[in-house]
UniProtKB/TrEMBL annotation:
It comes from Streptococcus sobrinus W1703. It holds the Pfam family GFO_IDH_MocA. GO terms for molecular function: hydroxymethylglutaryl-CoA reductase (NADPH) activity; nucleotide binding. The lineage of its organism: Bacteria, Bacillati, Bacillota, Bacilli, Lactobacillales. It comes from the Bacteria. This is Oxidoreductase, NAD-binding domain protein. Residues 127-238 form the GFO/IDH/MocA-like oxidoreductase domain.
Length: 240
């Protein structure tokens, strides 16, 4: 039995983690959830909710901690948990920058622990279907794959009056689809970026079109906050 805890009690924990983890009650026990303040999400029976982080850090039964907080806190919380001897699962984006990520992985390796990003999109049904289609060989040689992660939420960029790279649309959303690409094909040979601030400079970027090249194959990852009609999640083109 794996005994684990969560740091954060918002949408991520309650929508993207607990519904799936609690289906594995014979294998995983969620013992404790830490929250800085009271949450609007209902408390679940059998879980200890606390405002004291030490309830997790000092509990020898808890071997895994999932961090589901705003990303600005990911690095410090992950480091704190690792220093307490806990294995750590971190929501996306993993950290604010590459240096922080490398430091966590290096420390984890030296301590014999595990730290990993929560890449749940690898198990989306449409992505699993794409893997089956590619494995079947029915498309022949893959020439192009388009991936779309679209929204119509203009109120988000309209309400954001500043720009920070680590909080940008590109950084916080492409981590979903780029991980899918890399898990399929590995690191690309070449990358082309088209990242835009449709509402003007010094605003958040609200559109991106990324092209990753693998020999004769091009994989395009596209997303926008202003896409009224969502495009297909995946489109694949091959040739015999």
């Amino acid at each position: 039995m794996l005994t684990m805890a969560y740091i954060g009690n918002g949408k991520s924990t309650n929508r993207y983690h607990l519904p799936f983890v609690r289906k594995l009650a014979d294998k995983i026990l969620v013992k404790t959830i830490y929250q800085r303040s009271n949450s609007s999400w209902p408390e679940l029976e059998g879980i200890h909710y606390t405002h004291d982080l030490d309830d997790i850090l000092s509990d020898p039964e808890i071997s895994l901690v999932a961090i589901c907080t705003p990303q600005s806190a990911h690095y410090e919380l992950a480091k704190t948990c690792l220093e307490a001897g806990k294995n750590v699962l971190v929501e996306k984006p993993f950290t604010n920058n590459l240096a922080q990520a490398r430091e966590l992985f290096e420390f984890t390796k030296s301590q014999g622990l595990v730290v990993q990003a929560y890449q749940n999109r690898r198990f989306d049904s449409d992505f699993l279907t794409v893997q089956k289609v590619l494995a079947s060989g029915k498309l022949g040689d893959l020439l192009e794959m388009e991936m779309h992660f679209d929204y119509y939420r203009p109120q988000v960029p309209e309400s954001n009056k500043s720009f920070k790279p680590e909080e940008s649309f590109l950084y916080t959303h492409s981590c979903h689809t780029l991980d899918q690409v890399i898990s399929l094909f590995g690191p690309p040979e070449q990358v082309h970026y088209d990242v835009r601030q449709l509402l003007g400079s010094e605003r958040m970027n609200d559109y991106f079109d990324l092209d990753l090249y693998y020999g004769a194959c091009k994989v395009s990852v596209k997303s926008s906050y202003f896409r009224l009609q969502a495009r297909p999640s995946f489109a694949l083109y091959g040739i015999y």
